[in-house]
Amino acid sequence: MRIKTLVVGTLYTNCYVVYEGDEAFIIDPGAEADYILEQVKGLKVKAILATHGHFDHILAVERLKKTLKAPFLIHPADGWIMEESLKWINPPRPAPEIDAPLIGELGLKGHKFEVIHTPGHTPGSVSILVDNEILFSGDTLFQGSVGRYDFPGSSLEDLKKSIKKLMELPDRVKVYPGHGGETTIGDERRENWFIITYLL
Ligand SMILES: [Zn+2]
Ligand SMILES: [Zn+2]
What we know:
This protein is 26% helix and 31% strand. It is an alpha/beta fold and 200 residues long. It has a single domain, classed as Metallo-beta-lactamase, Chain A (4-Layer Sandwich). The strands form three sheets. It has a six-stranded mixed beta sheet, covered by helices on one side. A six-stranded mixed beta sheet has the order 7-8-9-10-13-14. The radius of gyration is 16 Å and the shape is globular. One zinc ion binds at residues 52, 54, 121, 139, 147.
């Protein structure tokens, strides 16, 4: 399986193109639809996934959905977060239609994508674990920190529980966050201030 990291938009969101052979998922297309489309040329995009509903993770969804004819999946608890978040955009725009809930498990050419509900940053935040080796953590877990928990719909208590859940994963699991550089569960267990402060 291969992963392309595309840094998009004003908040430098990591949009990931995950592919095996000619089949792909796009995770968090936060902006720059043209650039993303160019990067998936020759690939069959099976679905567009969002780790949560903030505008910087979904702004390109509408264009990609239309052009690629691929379904859009997000956790249903973030429907209103999308609507709320897209009001901050100038000009404001409607939320993209959800084609299926991002829950349970997805497959891509034999790879298992397990959706872990990790509320806290938003109520419908998810982390996506692939083959027990790779975690797309959205804005829940970053290298050295965690997502903000002072937004509408955020909850520090939920975030603590969610991070605790992620810390049950093996140290070797590689983490691809919604912003910033890659890390591992082991490194975060040892060095992340939030985990050291709240969970040890
Ligand atoms: Zn966010
Ligand atoms: Zn973000």
